[in-house]
Amino acid sequence: MSVGAALLASPGLAVPAAAAAATSAYENAADYSLFLEEKYAIDYQGVATKGQYLESVADVLGARHSGAEVAFRDLNADDDVYPAAAALYEQGVLTADTVGAEKKLTPAAAVFVAVKAAGLQELANTYPQEKIDRALAKLKRKSAALTPQAAKELAAAADTGLLPAEYYGEFYAGAGQPASPELIETLLGKILTFNGKYKRYIGYVSDHDIVAKLTAAYASSGLIAAPELRDAADAALRQNLVTGYNLKDSRFDPNFVQSLSLTYSHDNLKHAIQLIGLLRSEHIDAKVQFEPKTSAFIYLKEWGEPQETEDYRVVQIENGNYIAYAKEYDISFEFERAADKEKFDAIVTAYAKKDSDDEPNLLAGSWWQPLYYSLTELDNYEVITNNKFSDGRYYVQSFSLNDDAAAVAEGFRRLAPDAKAESYRFWVDKPFFRYLNGESE
After folding, report:
1. What start and end residues bound the annotated signal peptide (predicted)?
2. How far is CA 137 from CA 134, 330, 425, in A?
3. Strand, helix or coil at 22?
4. pLDDT tens digits, residue range 131-165?
């Protein structure tokens, strides 16, 4: 049995040189649009007002009005836009006492708000006139047409990529032209990115250096220590409430678009490298996020004396068995197309699922029951439950059959009453589902 499979809660290789599908080296308007719609229910169509934009900026920043009075000359406390405007004023994103909420949103107005929301104000303030003029020349703008502060902010937006080059043309069109939905959603995506609230990933499958990035991420990971959560989860193991759990750090969560992503679990770096190569050979590209985790499970005394390493520790418990802690990882992929996500199951089944001891032509370290899962529905997958408990940035999760989920969740709540509890259903590959039902092969 692989240690990776133990999270259930129920009783030096060269990457193939095949060309991968071409991909953008950065997020574009379509990427931001899908993310905003899925995560925040934001979807711009046609001409937007400044008030609508301010509400969106407040949403993506998670800005909330403290309740203290903020006096605007053109906005009352009972106006719909007031809470967002007041929250942004308190954070320094809005600096004037007039809002212009009903006005058509212009590209310049959108950028000026975005600079402050992205945390670039201090950088903009450092700009001397020569640097301002050089940056604004790219937009075919003259600093004399702007206030000194506006000129600095627009220049910094262009230089930092907050304002991508493909939208410079909106500044050529003349004063008063509305900001396009694509520019608005791109600026919102950039605000998220500059605040660390957008997607997290180490690169793309197609990157020439993705293996180096993956190797570095694996080498820098280790066993995760979160004593209070771990002690509660270990108590669940001792009480036979679960037979295993994972301990993870939310700082590595990918925050991908769920409809395009899935997560693959393993413990072997060589396997991960070969999996990347396999996807490239199948002409499938995807964003890649490495998520370190610790897998904890019961090690039976009849298996023999366990051998500890830096990445594998054991603690003996009262009945003579051990709790083992093993370094593992999840790799999350966000595919370019839903069709590529759908192909993943067949690819793993063909090349990374072990069916006999001497089966040839499989990836190194292939498991009998591989584990990969999706938070959105997929054909040929089964539905199970994740029982998740968080304390700060760390969380414990243990997968179970749906019929067992209530008992597992209640047991964890009793053992970790101060932790944030969450249970939800998701879609897992059939081999792991069979494993949860007691099949070892």
Report:
1. 1-20
2. 5, 46, 53
3. coil
4. 999 999 999 888 888 999 999 999 999 999 999 99
Domain end (from 176, 194, 212): 194
**Owning domain of residue 402:** 3-23+200-436
The rounded mean pLDDT for the chain is 92
What are the pLDDT digits (tens) for 316-361? Answer: 999 999 999 999 999 999 999 999 999 999 999 999 999 999 899 9
Go through 90-107 and write b for each residue having 16 or more CB atoms within 10 A of its CB, e for each that does not. eeebbeeeebbbeeebbb
Q: Is residue 144 part of a domain?
A: yes
Query: Which SS3 state, helix, strand or coil, does residue 29 take?
Result: helix
CA dist., res. 237 & res. 3, Å (int): 15
| 155, two tokens | 């220049």
Q: Are strands 322-335 and 286-299 parallel, antiparallel or unpaired?
A: antiparallel
In a domain, 441, yes or no: no
Would you say 367 and 268 are in contact if contact means Cβ atoms under 8 Å apart?
no
Same domain, 247 and 378: yes
- Count structural domains, the chain: 2
Domain boundary among 194, 217, 251: 194
Residues 213 and 219: beta-carbon distance below 8 Å: no
The residues facing 332 across adjacent strands are 263, 289
